[in-house]
């Protein structure tokens, strides 16, 4: 496998990333260029702006195209593959979040269970084998990362670090039991998720404590009471993660009935870089006699390595497309 070398390109949300990975798992190079700085000024991911920033950054990786985020990456990949006459592999973003765990934990064999938690997705999947995934649960509204980001914004936190990391930090100072938010979906005995209701509860809690409404209609930014904000952050995080714990417990029970040989729960996606999330889920996993596999934080958040690695996994099983024509017109891509 050492002779396979894969370039991974990732442009699906607010980051632009690329990496070169060898078939044996060696990471030969990697770059992530975050737009968080740029986007924090606008309070979130603005698709048009993200698109433009991708193009600018991608220019530095050597090209010039301006379309929507994913197409920028896809076009770059096809152009390069065409010019250098190389085979190309299309990679699903969420599959890449899951499979990168097999790069960091070489004992991780199929089948395994995976919880994928990011800004746009909340998925519980049973990975039978490469390309065969059974979805046990998904969100019926928002993903947990979106709830972290909104809560952080409403609390007036510094979005330059990213809403999730800012909230995680503030929560360390708060009392997680100070507000009793209710745990979502308890009456639904399944593995699905919901974060819209928790978001609303948080917004109401903030509004009821608000003393100033000058700049942001819902923000405690002007309330000089860090403690009160920390309490909200910690209480939100406790319940947001309890919801994950409950769903994972049920998913483990379900999965073991389908595939009794399962030994691992993979937790990946941006929110999996959160230390509190990792600690709480590791308890759940251990109580069930399984092992937790969580990639290092830099491989949990969007990155090029996960894309390259997933490309390698597919390539080695013969799943790839032939090189595109070197002169392929853009509208054919
Ligand atoms: O996987 P990812 O990098 O991009 C998507 O595919 O969405 O996940 C981004 C999400 C954002 O919502 C971000 O706030 C969240 O992951 N996130 C965190 C942390 N780091 C990133 N959420 C909670 N705690 C963190 N430390
Ligand atoms: Zn992602």
Q: What is the helix tally?
A: 11
Q: Which geometry do the CA atoms define?
A: globular
> What radius of gyration results from the CA coordinates?
21 Å
Sequence of secondary-structure elements:
EEEHHHHEEEHHHHEHEHH
Main sheet specs: 5 strands, mixed
Might you state the CATH topology name of the largest domain? Answer: Nucleotidyltransferase, domain 5
Total number of distinct structural domains? 2
What would CATH call the homologous superfamily of the largest domain?
Answer: ATPase, nucleotide binding domain
Name the structural class.
Answer: alpha/beta
What is the CATH C-level name of the largest domain? Alpha Beta
Provide a short characterization of the protein structure.
Helices cover 43% and strands 15% of the residues. It is an alpha/beta fold and 333 residues long.
Q: Helices, strands, pairings?
A:
Elements: E1 5-10, E2 15-22, E3 27-34, H1 36-40, H2 47-60, H3 69-84, H4 93-104, E4 112-117, E5 122-129, E6 132-137, H5 144-154, H6 163-171, H7 196-209, H8 226-258, E7 264-268, H9 275-287, E8 291-293, H10 297-300, H11 304-316
Parallel strand pairs: 4-7, 7-8
Antiparallel strand pairs: 1-2, 2-3, 4-5, 5-6
Helix pairs in contact: 2-3, 4-11, 5-6, 5-7, 5-8, 6-8, 7-8, 8-9
This protein binds 5'-O-[(R)-(carboxyoxy)(hydroxy)phosphoryl]adenosine and zinc ion.
5'-O-[(R)-(carboxyoxy)(hydroxy)phosphoryl]adenosine (KG4) binds near residues 119, 149 and 271.
